Amino acid sequence: MNVTLQLILFLFSVILGGLLVEFLKKSASIKLLLSFSGGFLLTIIFTHILPESYAQIEYTGFFILVGFFLQLVLEYFSKGAEHGHTHVHNNVASHFPIAIFLSLSVHAFIEAIPLNHGLHHHHHDHGLNDLYWGVFIHKIPVAIALKTILDASGVSKRNSWIYLIIFGLTAPLGLIFGEVVMANFEVSLSWLLATAIGMFFHVSTTIIFESSEGHKINILKLLSILAGFGVGIAIG
User: Fold this and answer.
1) Residue 212 φ/ψ, nearest 5 degrees
2) By the 8 A CB rule, do 174 and 113 touch?
3) Phi/psi of residue 8, each to 5°?
C-alpha cells in the first residue's frame, strides 16, 4: 500500500467518525464499533505483531512497558477518549479541551510512526499490514469521542470539524516522519513498534474490560468483540 493511499485512508477514517457523530449521535452502534475495534486490535497484537516484534529486537518487553506507561500518562489528560469515553458534563462545557486534543494527537502521531517499518527477516509483512488496519479501524471511535467532546465543550460546529481534520492529519504526519527517519538516518524503528504495542495493548484491554456493565457483559458487545477477534484472525 503506497503512502499516499495510507494518508487518504487515515483522514477518511477520522472524517467518517465525525459523520457518525452527526448522524448517530449517542447511538448504541457506536459502542459496538468500539468493542469491535478493541477485539480486533487485541487479536492482531497477539497473533501477528507481538511475535514478530520479539523476533526482531532485544528488550521488546521493556519497550512494551514503556508504551503501556506512556498511554497511562496520555489518558490522564485525554480522560480515556482513546477508548470512547467523553467525560464531558453540561455544566463544565464552555472551553476548548486542549489537554484532550493534544494527548490524542500525540497518541495518533506516535502509533503511526512505525507502521511502514518493514520486518524484513520474514517473507511477508502481514503483521504490519494488520496493524495498519487495526489503527485505521481504531481511529473511527477515537474520532467519534473527540468530535463528541468538541461539540459538548461549546466549540462551534465549523471549528469542531477544523480541529477534527487537524487531528486526522497527526497520524499521516507520523507516517511521513517514520518514512523520513528510515530513508535518511538508517535508524531501526522496531523499538518504537514495541512501544506502540504497549499503547495498543492498554487501549484494547481497557475497551474490552469496560464492555461489561455492572459486572454483566452485554451480549451485543460480546458478539462485537468476538467479531473483532474473528476478523483479526481471518486476515492473518
Assistant:
1) -95, 140
2) yes
3) -65, -45
**Other CB atoms within 10 Å distance of the CB of residue 136:** 19
Residues 6-22: tens digit of each pLDDT? 778 888 889 988 888 88
Residue-level pLDDT at 161: 92
What's 95's DSSP letter? S
Its pTM stands at 0.73
What letter would DSSP give residue 81? G
Query: What is the pLDDT averaged over residues 202-215?
Result: 70
Rounded distance, CA 18 to CA 12, Å?
A: 10
As separate numbers, helices (DSSP H) first and strands (DSSP E) second, the chain gives 9, 2
User: 212 by DSSP, 3-state: which?
Assistant: strand
Helix axes 190-209, 28-44, angle to 10 degrees: 140
